[in-house]
Specification:
P-loop_NTPase; Rossmann fold; kinase; Putative kinase; 15% strand; kinase activity; 7 helices; transferase; alpha/beta
Length: 177
């Protein structure tokens, strides 16, 4: 059985992260896990504030699928070292490759426009406003496998860029000799 891959998306709301993650899922047939959906379901069912529970539940769902040999896409802000380490542990414990993908939008005005014009996709989930996005704790990666800046690009161009980089990363290097 081929070793599965865990694709972990990171980035602030409104960067295009979820759109790219969903496109990658469609393109590759990978299992798609969106932390926003998991967390909102927990809020709806348990009527309580949710913090790390959504991530922890998602780690288990990802692990179940990786054990089956399925590729998994984890779509979340993944804002701090702790969650990044935990996703790494999910990959290690399930003998999966790990590809970390950070999505950003370097044009502040464009990013703000995206945040302010987003449509709700997850029932019951209120999107953060621009001030909340700016104030959100998010530590940029020091070293990431793939960094995609979606500023001034169509989603199609950003998606193609991502797919091209993934193909290069996943292509085995052969030596002659």
């Amino acid at each position: 059985m081929k070793k599965p891959t865990l694709f972990v998306f990171s980035g602030l709301p409104g960067t295009g992260k979820s759109t790219l993650a969903k496109r990658l899922a469609i393109e590759t047939g990978a299992v798609y896990i969106r932390i926003d959906t998991v967390e909102q379901a927990l809020r709806d069912l348990c009527h309580q504030e949710v913090e790390g529970e959504g991530y922890r539940l998602s780690y288990r769902v990802a692990a179940d699928n990786l054990k089956l040999g399925l590729n998994v896409i984890a779509d979340s802000c993944n804002p701090i070292a702790l969650t990044r380490i935990e996703w790494n542990e999910v990959a290690i414990h399930n003998q999966a490759n790990l590809i970390n993908i950070e999505v950003s939008c370097s044009d502040k005005a464009e990013h703000r426009r995206r945040v302010e014009s987003r449509l709700a996709e997850v029932p019951g989930l209120a999107h953060p406003d621009w001030e909340s996005v700016e104030a959100r704790e998010y530590h940029p990666w020091q070293a990431v496998d793939i960094a995609i800046d979606t500023a001034h690009k169509s989603i199609e161009a950003s998606s193609q860029e991502l797919l091209n980089i993934i193909r290069v990363i996943q292509t085995p290097i052969t030596t002659s000799g």
